[in-house]
């Protein structure tokens, strides 16, 4: 294997007049002379200068958009505009041809919809290169944040027998022959004969298992794929998404809010520092896109300003009840009312309400707490008012809910009572209830939807564009 230098390093090189080997894919080839080559290390291409008079015409013909090349040559200070260095090629090897008639990614602007249909090749565009480098940095920063604070990264199972959120949105897992599903005498599916001897599903959340870990290791986090067969035909939902779920023994709701706010700021700052050029590119992209909107719908801030704003301001903290009071008094603009009117206390907030609070009322990230128990999961700690639970949702501009979490109900009797009220079988979750039987203690945690974070930091409008291989209804091709 010959040595190669990544294009990012070449472009930053202090030294010129050195021999280099560079490998990548052709983004453009102008005048049989200038190749724009990209290897994914940066959005910027390196310019390769071809001595076309002394190059075999058959080889020149094979330098087409999408082809993979290995180039040897000299790195020199560029005389041309738009780049500081370029490579004067002495030897070009075609590693993989690309038929220009058939290659779908041409050197022009493609719509995001088109690229979604070519998701297997969209990594080769500037926008998706930037998105996935930012995504990578955010994932790394999440680990670094928790590792610096002594958290244990706990792997929770993908296949489970429980529905942590109790919302009935699970995907079944089975190895039954679908043409011949065993039935019991009463005609029901006989899960006893299935692989695990019981009905199982893909996990919707690692929280319940995470709590078991926290009740011994104190501070844990999970970071893995979760699956929901729900309302995923929106720009904010996927059927398969990644979730980060910290769980901390001895924390209460205020500690939980502090942890979430610190984490979000830490990872956003990390990406801003590490991926300054990609975020600059995405900022320009979004600014161009905003220009196509009517003046009154355009964002007041650029992407970069939005990210910096988020770092420099405390998140607004208020209760659900306070939020309802604000919303009841509000009309989103002069003429229009909310599509879903606020019926009163007790109803769940729609994303238009969440976005109104964040984007119009407070104009910054908001943490809502103490929701009505009826609209939240069984495991949240009940307040003394008998009506609300120690829940928290973090709402972000342009996104809506980015984090959902709570202080947990650590009192066995209260938890069992709530499970009974909600029809959640206590026998099946005996292992979860054991934590409340043996050394129970206050604890709290939350779930951050990783793709919603990537959406925020990249300024993209559709969650399907920030995960390499999106899973949504009728889509699992690649
Ligand atoms: O609010 P959720 O449902 O909370 C839980 O699952 C808790 N067990 C978390 C915890 O306390 N450990 O989901 C958490 C976050 C949401 O705030 C949202 O960001 C994201 O996960 N999320 C989704 N992201 C993409 N597609 C979907 N279908 C999502 N559903 C939830
Ligand atoms: Mg939620």
TrEMBL record:
Gene: asnS
GO cellular component terms listed in the entry, alphabetical order: cytoplasm
A Gene Ontology BP annotation from the UniProt entry: asparaginyl-tRNA aminoacylation
EC number(s) on file: 6.1.1.22
NCBIfam families: asnS, PRK03932.1
Keywords: Aminoacyl-tRNA synthetase, ATP-binding, Cytoplasm, Ligase, Nucleotide-binding, Protein biosynthesis
Protein name: Asparagine--tRNA ligase
GO molecular function: asparagine-tRNA ligase activity; ATP binding; nucleic acid binding
Family per similarity comment: Belongs to the class-II aminoacyl-tRNA synthetase family.
């Amino acid at each position: 294997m010959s040595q190669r230098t990544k294009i990012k390093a070449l472009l930053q090189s202090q030294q010129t007049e050195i021999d280099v080997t560079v490998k990548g894919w052709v983004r453009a080839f102008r005048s049989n002379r200038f190749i724009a080559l990209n290897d994914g290390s940066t959005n910027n291409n390196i310019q390769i200068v071809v001595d076309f008079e002394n190059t075999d015409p058959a080889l020149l013909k094979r330098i087409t958009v999408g082809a993979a090349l290995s180039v040897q040559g000299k790195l020199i200070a560029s005389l041309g505009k738009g780049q500081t260095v370029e490579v004067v090629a002495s030897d070009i090897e075609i590693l993989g041809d690309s038929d220009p008639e058939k290659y779908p990614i041409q050197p022009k602007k493609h719509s995001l919809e088109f690229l979604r249909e070519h998701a297997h090749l969209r990594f080769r565009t500037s926008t998706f290169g930037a998105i996935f480098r930012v995504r990578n940095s955010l994932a790394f920063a999440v680990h670094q944040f928790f590792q610096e604070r002594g958290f244990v990264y706990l792997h929770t199972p993908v296949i489970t027998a429980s529905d942590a959120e109790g919302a009935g949105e699970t995907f079944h897992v089975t190895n039954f022959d679908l043409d011949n599903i065993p039935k019991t005498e009463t005609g029901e599916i006989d899960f006893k004969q299935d692989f695990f001897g019981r009905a199982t599903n893909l996990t919707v959340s690692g929280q319940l298992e995470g709590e078991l870990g926290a009740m011994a290791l104190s501070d844990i986090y999970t970071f893995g794929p979760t699956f929901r067969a729900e309302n995923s035909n929106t720009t904010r939902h996927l059927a398969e998404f990644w979730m980060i779920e910290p769980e901390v023994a001895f924390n209460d709701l205020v500690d939980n809010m502090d942890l979430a706010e610190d984490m979000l700021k830490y990872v956003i700052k990390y990406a801003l520092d590490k991926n300054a050029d990609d975020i600059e590119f995405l900022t320009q992209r979004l600014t161009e896109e905003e220009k196509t909107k009517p003046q009154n719908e355009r964002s007041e801030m650029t992407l970069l300003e939005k990210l910096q704003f988020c770092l420099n301001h405390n998140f607004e903290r208020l209760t659900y009840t306070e939020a309802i009071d604000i919303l009841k008094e509000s009309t989103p603009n002069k003429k229009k009312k909310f599509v879903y009117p606020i019926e009163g206390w007790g109803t769940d907030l729609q994303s238009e309400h969440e976005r109104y609070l964040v984007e119009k009322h407070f104009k910054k990230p908001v943490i809502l707490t103490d929701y009505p128990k009826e609209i939240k999961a069984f495991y949240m700690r009940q307040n003394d008012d008998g009506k609300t639970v120690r829940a928290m949702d973090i709402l972000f501009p342009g996104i809506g809910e980015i984090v959902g979490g709570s202080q947990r109900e650590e009192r066995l009797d209260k938890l069992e009572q709530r499970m009974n009220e909600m029809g959640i079988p206590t026998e099946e979750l005996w292992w979860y209830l054991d934590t409340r039987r043996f050394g129970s203690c206050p604890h709290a945690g939350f779930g951050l939807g990783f793709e919603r974070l990537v959406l925020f930091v990249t300024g993209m409008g559709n969650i399907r564009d920030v995960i390499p291989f999106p899973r949504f209804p009728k889509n699992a091709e690649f």
